[in-house]
Every structure is written in structure tokens, then in C-alpha cells.
Amino acid sequence: MMGIKVDPRYFVLLFLLSFVIAGQLFLGFFQKWDSMAVSVSVAVMAELLLTRLIRRQWIMPTSALITGLGISLLLSSHLLWPYACASLLSIIIKHAVRMRGKHIFNPNNVAMCFMLWFLPQYAVSTPKQWTNGYEVMVFILLLGAIAAYSAGRLDTVISFILGFAFFACIRYYFFDEPLFYAFGPMLGASFQLFSFFMITDPQTTPPTRVARIMLAVCISGVDTVLRLQEVTNSTFYSAFLVTLFIGLPYRIYYYRKSQERVVG
Questions:
Q1: Which residues pair with 188 in a beta bridge?
Q2: pLDDT digits (tens, 9 = 90+) for 170-186
Q3: What pTM was estimated for this model as a whole?
Q4: In Å, how far from its chain's centre is CA 229?
Q5: Could you give the CA distance from residue 63 to residue 54 in angstroms, rounded to a whole number?
Q6: pLDDT tens profile 9-47
């Protein structure tokens, strides 16, 4: 009997929903239910309309739900319109910036980079600590591991975390960073959200394991350089820069090699 294959996106959706619920009920996250409602509503409506206009069809907006929840967790603002702006920008980027039928950049990451760089007076990304909710943390991270494994991207998560820890040691021993300052981000909810959600998108990560591991380590390395330069929100910028200057050229190279093998 053939096993039932579950769409990996449902695990990601469950992972993000657990974040939202835990943040509201146990951990006191800054974002409230209204910001989540705005983010999700705008993302879903934009996805439905753009898909209808471009593909002439209606779809189940599972990806848009994931996008909206991600924005509501990653972004922090005392206003609601930045959540709507970031969600709309994410969906537009997903449909507009594509190559060979797949989006090039993680839409959430690009939207966050735009908001944090150009509108820092209205939008920030807070470090969101787990405080004392360690039981909640273990449960959510277990869901994150299941989601990454089901998407075939657990190697990316592990590589990034190990890479970050390695470079944290470098910053601690050779650049005199305080121990907690170097390793502290790993204890925050934002770090786990970035690790299990932001850099595991199957459409924007390489198809081979070696390439995914290298890409994850590069992101942690660029993040370290930016941290040493005291750049805030360094993880978002590092993911964008590595995708632009390493991930995109690799995708072009991989596609050309695949075409050569087909022709040959």
C-alpha cells in the first residue's frame, strides 16, 4: 500500500501557527492578533488576485497563508500598514522576480530587507526572546524540524546553525565579543524562525545537498561579517546577499549543466 504524501507546506503552516499561538498566549510577543490578521488577509488577497490575472485560475492560497504568518512574526511595528505593505511586497516579488518558473529570492526575506532598510522608522525586527517558555520552545522547534525534514531541507537548517555557532566562536575568541552577545541570538525565537522558515524555501534553495550546505554556511559567514560591522538585522541582509551573488549564479550554472546533459 502506498503511503500518503503530505504537502510539506502544511508542516510549515503548523510550525508558524504554533509560533503565533505561543507568542500571543505564553511569550508576550509584541505583535498582536490584528497585525497577523492584516498580514494574512493582504497576502491571501494579493495571491488570489495575481494568480487569477496571470494564470487565469483560482488556487488554494496555502503559500500566501505561510507568507502572511511569516511577515506577522518577523516584522514589528506600532502601525498596521507596514504589515500590509510587507505582505503585499512579498507576494508581488514572488510573482514578478522569477526564473524558469520559480521565484529567485525568498519573498519574505526581500520584503523584510526592504522594510528594514528603507522604512526603519516604521518597521523593525525584534529579537523576541523565549523568556521562560522552554517547554513551548522545544515543541515548536520539533515542529520546525519536522517541517524542514519533510521539505528535504533539514541539512540547510543544521548547517546554518552549526555555521553560526562556529563563527560565534570566532567572534568571541578573536574579536573580543562578549560570550552572550556572540551566542545570545541562538536563544531567541527570531533565530529559530529564520533558521527553520526563512532559509528553507525549497524553491529558492539549491537542489543538491552539498550546495545547500555551502549556501547555509555562506549565509552564516556573511552574517558574521555584517555583525562585526555592527549592521543590525544582519541575518536578513546576509540571506539576500548570498542568494544574489552566490545562489543566483549557481542556479544559472546548474540549469545550463542540466541542459547540456539533456542535449548530450
A1: 129
A2: 999 999 999 988 998 88
A3: 0.91
A4: 23
A5: 16
A6: 899 999 899 888 877 777 767 678 899 999 999 999 999
